[in-house]
Amino acid sequence: MPFPHLAARYKRLLLKHLPVLVAGVLAGYIIGCNKLGIRGLLNLSQDMGGCHSNEPVADNSRPRAALVALVRNRELLGMRMAVRQIEDRFNRNYNYPYIFVNDQEFTEEFKEGIRALTNAEVSFGTLDSESWQVPEWINQTLYEEEKRTATYLHGGKDSYRKMCRFQSGYLHKHPLVADLDYYWRIEPDVEYYCDIDYDPFVYMRENGYKYGWTIAMPEFMPTVRTLWNTTMEFVNANQGLVAQNNMAEWLANGDAYNGCHFWSNFEIVDLSFYRSSTYQMFFDHLDRAGGFFYERWGDAPVHSIAAALFLNASQIHYFNDIGYYHPTILYCPQGSSTKGRCVCDEDKAFIHNTACTVRYKEVRQKIVEPEAKELAHTGPLVDFALSVEPKSQLRDANEVK
Ligand SMILES: *[C@@H]1O[C@H](CO)[C@@H](O)[C@H](O)[C@H]1NC(C)=O
Ligand SMILES: *[C@@H]1O[C@H](CO)[C@@H](O)[C@H](O)[C@H]1NC(C)=O
Ligand SMILES: *[C@@H]1O[C@H](CO)[C@@H](O)[C@H](O)[C@H]1NC(C)=O
Ligand SMILES: *[C@@H]1O[C@H](CO)[C@@H](O)[C@H](O)[C@H]1NC(C)=O
């Protein structure tokens, strides 16, 4: 060592002051990190950055979560049917709040009709005009032309497109939803066939899942003609945003989109995903491109493409234990027509395993569980991708005006 005298001197100093140093570091830790420390008390909104640990911490708190629906006054009966089932199968034991939003004021009849079904807190809200409009950059000539010539279902409708845009980019920002950590989307006329005897929100949190789904199927391609290319523009300009272990392979047939998407009328989502700058940038890019209007991009493919590209495969969860119906498709867990805590007619559940579900399982297994055994096919394989049945017809009840 070139300066032994200095080293010796620092050693002496260090030993002399060690107790003070230790006390100082501890004090700094307490003041800086304890939320009841001085800084915390002086300013409760202060960011405690630097104190966040990457260690998984058991969180016994109740998730800030709610069941959320976009619904119209005239859908009261269907909404009551859905809430009745959700209460019976799940929420009577958990009492998560409900949030209903509408582009019109809810009637007293609607509010009373819902409140009578549950002890949980229920909130009703309307949409603001920004979230429910045709943006000013949309070329009206082109848009009118598309509405006039579209042959797909709801092709002529403003409201269906506004709904898809709202669910894609604005529902998670609605003031009633903005404070939630998780939401579970519900809709009129949906049915739940199984007792859900655990808390899916806690389950998502404990496993680090950001997106949960139960039915996957292909989109009717005329509604998403340029969605994939528009997505690829975004991806190429923002390559760092794509997750390392993404599920792009689930979506791509060579250079083209295969139409696979999660049917987002059911989705349980960690909303930090939709609030992330990545998702926001992606939505803005799509919104600017205009395909919500020049075509009829659905929130289902938009959410699904985002989840598949910007989340790791291990952050997506298939709730294959939740028997679910949305007009006119139902999913039954395997074996649930004869045993277990479901009553679900498997013969009618003709999408046990759509081509998109099978492909999802294969791709995910390759990424997340490469060591797992060959996946067991659990039912008749119905290849939607090869049929021309427009999925959009199945979404009739999903439409808002
Ligand atoms: C509290 O902290 C926030 C974030 O650092 C800051 O924006 C705000 O001005 C602070 N408020 C007061 C009263 O110091
Ligand atoms: C809108 O599109 C039409 C048809 O392509 C085009 O002729 C027109 O110039 C466009 N309008 C604007 C304001 O860009
Ligand atoms: C999308 O991009 C591919 C590859 O660049 C191209 O061949 C195709 O024509 C594009 N499709 C549309 C609808 O623009
Ligand atoms: C995906 O996993 C990689 C590797 O574990 C990690 O670095 C990255 O942050 C993850 N991405 C997201 C979106 O969580």
Automatic annotation (TrEMBL):
Gene Ontology MF terms in the entry: alpha-1,2-mannosyltransferase activity
Protein family (similarity comment): Belongs to the glycosyltransferase 15 family.
Superkingdom of source: Eukaryota
Entry keyword annotation includes Membrane: yes
Name this polypeptide is given: Uncharacterized protein
Keyword vocabulary terms for this entry: Membrane, Transferase, Transmembrane, Transmembrane helix
Pfam families (UniProt xref): Glyco_transf_15
Record-level GO BP terms: cell wall mannoprotein biosynthetic process; protein N-linked glycosylation
InterPro entries for the chain: Glyco_trans_15, Nucleotide-diphossugar_trans
Alphabetized Gene3D superfamilies for the sequence: Spore Coat Polysaccharide Biosynthesis Protein SpsA, Chain A
GO cellular component terms, A-Z: Golgi apparatus; membrane
TM segment ranges: 12-32
Active-site residues annotated for this sequence: E267
